[in-house]
Specification:
Elements lengths: L3 E6 L6 H10 L1 H10 L1 E6 L5 H7 L4 E4 L16 H4 L6 E4 L2 H6 L4 H13 L3 E6 L3 H5 L3 H12 L9 E5 L13 H19 L1 H6 L1 E5 L7 H5 L6 E4 L6 H10 L1
Parallel strand pairs: 1-2, 1-8, 2-3, 3-4, 4-5, 5-6, 6-7, 7-8
The structure holds 2-phosphoglycolic acid.
Length: 248
């Protein structure tokens, strides 16, 4: 039985002060999550990570991005070693906003995943097709390439979560139907089965992301291959986050 997982991706939102306010109010979230046997966490901006840890160490904490090299002349970047000064246990890799605005590729995602594994950190690897690719019926082809290339030479799926986030659904209010989401999440599990075998594929957690809200989260969780959600906008307030957990 896979434990449900809910991760709030805060993107470029919240100052340290705002993060503190969230964290101080978030004990209702972690208490309810324990009761419901759900893992919950957030990926705040780098600067707010220590604040969350200070005021609610029970939230799982992750980075939104990382560089795969330990150090060097890469202005504006943050290495995994630097992140390990903070109480994070994982990092997002390949979020569509990183792919779209910062030229992240399956190849660069692969380097990051390998480096995170090397440092014994977890990964939430984000995959998903654009609207154009969706309309052309290319979803599975695109996702397969993201998996094959992103996970190249990755020895096992330990500590790896895959998030299926159709780009057309992120921040648009147009969430994928639960049937579409399940179809692709099952496809992802089958691909992982082919690459890593039954045991690993049955164990790996696969999330859906893209306009997940308190009103629709439950639908996804009723599907056999969806183990939780990666949520942007609806994870920013304690009230809304609480409703997400309540409805899971
Ligand atoms: P959204 O973002 O829930 O605001 O659509 C999801 C994400 O980008 O992970």
């Amino acid at each position: 039985m896979r434990r449900k997982l809910l991760i709030g991706n805060w993107k470029m939102n919240k100052t340290r002060g705002e993060a503190e306010e969230f964290a101080r109010g978030s004990h209702v979230l972690t208490a309810l999550a324990v009761k419901k046997n759900i893992d919950i966490g957030v990926t705040p901006p780098f600067l707010a990570i220590d604040v969350i840890a200070k005021y609610n160490p029970k939230l799982i904490l992750g980075a939104q991005n990382c560089h795969y090299l330990p150090k060097g002349a890469y202005t504006g970047e943050v290495s995994i070693e630097m992140l390990q000064d903070l109480p994070i246990t994982m990092s997002l890799v390949g979020h569509s906003e990183r792919r779209t605005y910062y030229n992240e590729t399956n190849e660069s995602c692969n380097k990051k995943i390998l480096a995170l594994k090397d440092h014994s950190l977890g990964v939430i690897y984000c995959v998903g097709e654009t609207l154009d690719q969706f309309e052309k019926g290319l979803t599975k082809e695109v996702v397969k390439a993201q998996l094959d290339e992103g996970l190249k030479d990755v020895a096992d799926l330990d500590n790896i979560v895959v998030a299926y986030e159709p780009v057309w659904s992120i921040g648009t209010g147009k969430n994928a139907s639960k049937e579409i989401a399940e179809d692709v999440c099952k496809f992802i599990r089958d691909e992982l089965r082919a690459l890593y075998g039954d045991k690993a594929a049955d164990k790996v957690r696969i999330l859906y992301g893209g306009s997940v809200k308190p009103v629709n989260i439950h639908d996804y969780l009723t599907m056999p291959d969806i183990d939780g959600a990666l949520v942007g906008g609806a994870s920013l307030s304690v009230d809304s986050y609480l409703q997400l957990i309540e409805n899971m």
